[in-house]
Amino acid sequence: MTKIATRDAYGNALVKLGEVNQDVVVLDADLAGSTKTAKFREKYPERFFNMGIAEQNLIGTAAGFALSGKIPFASSFAIFATGRAFEQVRNSVAYPNLNVKIAATHAGLTVGEDGASHQALEDIAIMRAIPNMTVIVPADGVETEQAVFAAAKHQGPVYLRLGRPGVPVIYGEDYRFEIGKANLLRTGTQVGFVATGIMVSIALEAAEALKAEGIDAAVLNMSTIKPLDQEAIIQLAKTTGALVTAEEHNILGGLGSAVAEVVGEHCPVPVLRVGVKDVFGQSGTPAELLAEYGLTKENLMEKAKQAIAKKTC
Amino acid sequence: MNEELKQQLEAKAREIRKSIVRMTGAAGSGHPGGSLSAADIVTALYFHEMNINPQEPDWADRDRFVLSKGHAAPVLYAALAERGYFPKEELLTLRKMGSRLQGHPDLNALPGVEMSTGSLGQGLAVANGMALAGKLDQKDYRVYALLGDGECQEGMVWEAAMAAAHYRLDNLTAFLDDNGLQIDGPVEEVMSTKPLIDKWKAFGWHVLSIDGHDMGQILSALAEAKNTKGRPTMIIAKTIKGKGVSFMEDQVGWHGVAPKPEQVTQALAELE
Ligand SMILES: Cc1ncc(C[n+]2csc(CCOP(=O)(O)OP(=O)(O)O)c2C)c(N)n1
Ligand SMILES: [Mg+2]
Which domain holds residue A71? Predict the structure, then answer.
């Protein structure tokens, strides 16, 4: 299976977007090589702005660009864009509802060897709690490119969560991403996986393996965390009666929480959350880390069975 | 200096000071001290310097003003009302439920407000973005920002200071309202920001030092800023917090306290 990192897809998409949309400007904070905005810089140097290692200034300047009719994409690592600059995002972007796109790479455990200081595991929760903010976590390279274009078209702040390592390409070029619309990748009747980001392809693997054991599992790609596709979740809860969420993020406040909120209010069924259990990460290869924190096909299968078992109580 | 213009602007500044007193008095809360210290600067901007059109607040080529010290909202609101962006009577709704005059400026609520501010330290970076966009689009508009002296304790101010010089933003002019006071006391005691002039110079700015209540000096500084090429200009304006109201002048206690009705009456009498 071909793999491409969502950050690479982002860099490529920016170049395409910059070609068709002259209003797009790109800002970075000394990480252009890593966030892949360097590709845009190469092609359109006059529309690229390096703000230095100053993430608060990165976000504030992007706000000023948006106020002057530009569509700024501001990039850094997820931990710095949402952590260091949280209050700038809240007060200078989201509160005035400005057209700033925060495209943050190196989210989650799969940052790998850099370790816990660089592994954002709370960014979805933080961004989701801010009014006006749209939160998108693409599952693969194809969806990333689509999401970049959709974000540019959308009027208002967007948080785009991207990753470092290659992830399997699950979508064909004909796939059309829409903000706020979940994509049902696989139908199933006994249990439903609701996954986001890199966990989507792992959920697909788990569903396939469960089939061999006679368990019929659905997979829903929840690539927009906010606004959340409530209808798709309620529908899946009704048809399967048990859900398992999967995210490369703290189980507090992210996708699992969002799904549990909807299910609890509209169609109570068991929801088991797979994610990092409120601990910091550590150094390791992405594969080692995913295994260590249970973000694996095997754990998803196990949780699916537990969720099915809970239906009776 | 055109004496008539100076007198006109001084009269406007008095009107704006009166509005600040009235509106904070009516609100029963708010920040009169830092609004009064900036009244002459804001008057010069809105009634002489800036190329703006109250009938078309979103006109693409307008000059822009970012009130980075957003708690001085009353001075901005007073100037906008005086300039015709909205009816003056509305000033008395300041801080009331449902009012367009939020406690700190909300750009989506009130025409003429260029940026929502209130969290100190953030305005200069936003002004930078506006100035950068102006350069990119080869537009002639200018961008103005007003910062507090206490506000300069925020690290982000210096990130933005660095960036404005790096990008040679000569279409940007900032004022520093050097009133010497913040909430907990004199800036010198809380956390000294001195030497201010040297700091901004070291960050690559063209720095001017003026009396922020002398209309002639304000106008000359603005003219010099406009003619300065290749770098942004910082006008460090020595001011008196609470200027124009005897019992508020240079009193740290008048940072965020509204005048009581009898104090409003006295202040308005002094400003007549
Ligand atoms: C980030 C942030 N921290 C704290 C405050 C609370 N605050 C409001 S005004 C102020 C003092 C500001 O002093 P200065 O910048 O000197 O303003 P001025 O004297 O002109 O009123 C403080 C600390 C705030 N608004 N924003
Ligand atoms: Mg002060």
Answer: 3-168
